[in-house]
């Protein structure tokens, strides 16, 4: 029962002799985690393993795990850790994960982190997870999210860092810019509370084991990418990593 979620790398691996292994990218809403995940995938030729994608794939394919998950979703019930864990285990059996993978949306809890460590330790050829957290100050994140304005055609502006020439109007077609409901300060504040509550135990788990680094995300994209790559190499050079 394997799914077929494969995120194709955009380029060949930058260093075929370096094994990135499993990498958990952490970051609050707005830090640019998605952009950095794509950069890692392209640099090392490894896939992104997204629990959301895996869940949707199992449901759409009608696998046994998917049927069980759909029944819960249809009832408005959260999919259990055990079911998510089974889907992740199934995904990690695919050959594209052998050199490593980027974890997206998992592990979210300490229980999931412990399960993943145990799961990976069953194969002595598999490296342990290393966690890299992209950090940006709260006020900067708030500006990134609440300052975002979008045209009907999908052009994105930011009233703080990339404002339109005329407030509220798209530079290209003159259409009115909108702020998405999810980009409000109230929604952002709640998302941050949830993120911090869920992430703190996971961060501490990897920090205690010497498998955690912080990267400053308040820099140009290329510099953040370089910082993540440097952190990844340092973590993999550490004993038993």
Automatic annotation (TrEMBL):
Keywords: ATP-binding, Cytoplasm, Kinase, Nucleotide biosynthesis, Nucleotide-binding, Transferase. The keyword Transferase applies. Residues 50-79 are annotated as: NMP. Its main location: cytoplasm. It comes from the Bacteria. Residues 150-182 form the Adenylate kinase active site lid domain. Transmembrane segments: none annotated. One of its GO terms (molecular function) is ATP binding. GO terms for biological process: AMP salvage. Pathway: Purine metabolism; AMP biosynthesis via salvage pathway; AMP from ADP: step 1/1. AMP binds at residues 51, 56, 77-79, 105-108, 112, 180, 191. It catalyses: AMP + ATP = 2 ADP. The keyword Cytoplasm applies. Belongs to the adenylate kinase family. Catalyzes the reversible transfer of the terminal phosphate group between ATP and AMP. Plays an important role in cellular energy homeostasis and in adenine nucleotide metabolism. PANTHER family: NUCLEOTIDE KINASE (PTHR23359). Monomer. HAMAP family: Adenylate_kinase_Adk. Consists of three domains, a large central CORE domain and two small peripheral domains, NMPbind and LID, which undergo movements during catalysis. The LID domain closes over the site of phosphoryl transfer upon ATP binding. Assembling and dissambling the active center during each catalytic cycle provides an effective means to prevent ATP hydrolysis. This is Adenylate kinase.
């Amino acid at each position: 029962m394997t799914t077929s979620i494969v995120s194709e790398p955009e380029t060949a691996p930058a260093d075929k002799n370096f094994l990135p292994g499993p990498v958990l990218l952490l970051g609050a809403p707005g830090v640019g985690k998605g952009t950095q995940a794509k950069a890692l995938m392209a640099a090392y030729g490894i896939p992104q393993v997204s629990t959301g994608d895996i869940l949707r794939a199992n449901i759409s394919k009608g696998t046994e795990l998917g049927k069980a998950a759909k029944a819960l979703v249809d009832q408005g019930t959260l999919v259990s850790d055990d079911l998510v864990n089974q889907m992740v285990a199934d995904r990690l059996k695919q050959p594209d994960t052998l050199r490593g993978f980027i974890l997206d949306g998992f592990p979210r809890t300490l229980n999931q982190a412990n399960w993943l460590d145990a799961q990976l330790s069953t194969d002595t050829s598999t490296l342990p997870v290393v966690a890299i957290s992209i950090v940006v100050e709260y006020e900067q994140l708030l500006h990134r999210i609440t300052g975002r304005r979008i045209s009907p055609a999908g052009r994105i502006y930011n009233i703080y860092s990339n404002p339109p020439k005329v407030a509220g109007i798209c530079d290209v077609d003159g259409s009115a810019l909108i702020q998405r409901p999810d980009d409000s300060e109230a929604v952002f504040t709640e998302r941050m509370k949830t993120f911090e509550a869920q992430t703190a135990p996971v961060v501490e788990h990897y920090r205690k084991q010497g498998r955690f680094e912080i990267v400053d995300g308040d820099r140009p994209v290329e510099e953040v990418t370089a910082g993540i790559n440097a952190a990844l190499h340092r973590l993999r050079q550490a004993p038993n990593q």
